[in-house]
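Lab notebook page, bench 4
Experiment: in silico fold of construct C2
Operator: M.H.
Input chain length: 171 residues
Purpose: comparison with the prior construct
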Amino acid sequence: DDIALELLVDSSDYVCQRFRIELIAHLGQLRSLRKVDLAEEDPKKPTWYQPKFKKYNNVYCYFQTVNDIPRNLRITMTYYAEDWLFIRKVQFLIDGTAYEMIPREVKRDHESGDIWEWIDDPVSDRNIAIVKALYNCSEARVKYKGEDYDDIYTIHQEEIDAVKRTIDLYT
């Protein structure tokens, strides 16, 4: 089973190129990734590995490598809708256990009547329990707690599987 992921090559603070990569062999090894259509690459330049999702509402982890050494594991989640929540905190229900996360920062944008709010935090002592629970879970929901309104989102199996694959690649 080949698994499509997206390879992002980072230039300073901005993503400058996107490439498709395929997982060819063992999920636990970065060397099992084949980079497709890459121009000559500077091994000292950070390379970001993240799942590729077509839908807008999602929860996933991603990381970067420098000299093929994984680092900077992150958890990100996106709320996409027509109405703002102004997210203040995020609650998870993972296999019946409740977790809570106060994001370091929530970014927001809008276009053509649609809005999105997203969180992109480093994995740390503040949220590692959530990542571990997602890695081992069979079902999960996330509740975005806003200033006045909330929204509940069921994390799809493909997202749970992507968290597992990402952590396997990272470790």
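Observations: Helices lie at 128-136, 157-170. The first strand starts at residue 3 and ends at 11.
Next step: discuss at group meeting.
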